[in-house]
Write a structure and sequence with these properties.
By secondary structure, the protein is of the alpha+beta class. The chain contains one helix and three strands.
Length: 53
C-alpha cells in the first residue's frame, strides 16, 4: 500500500498516511486533520520499501 508524506499549506507536517489510492489517502488526512477551504493539502508518495525517514 502506498505511503504518502503530508504537506499542509506547503509545509511538511511530518505526518504520513497510507491508502490504496491517492483519494483514499487524501480522505485519511481529511478525516484526521481539521481542514478549512483555505488549506492546501498535498500528498507526496514516498518509497514504501525504505519507509519514512
Amino acid at each position: 500500500m502506498p505511503v504518502y508524506r503530508v504537506y499542509l499549506d506547503g509545509q511538511d507536517t511530518g505526518n504520513f498516511v497510507t491508502g490504496s489510492t491517492y483519494a483514499d489517502a487524501y480522505f485519511n488526512v481529511a478525516s484526521t486533520v481539521p481542514l478549512t477551504y483555505e488549506n492546501d493539502v498535498q500528498l507526496k508518495e514516498i518509497d514504501s520499501k525504505t519507509g519514512p525517514h
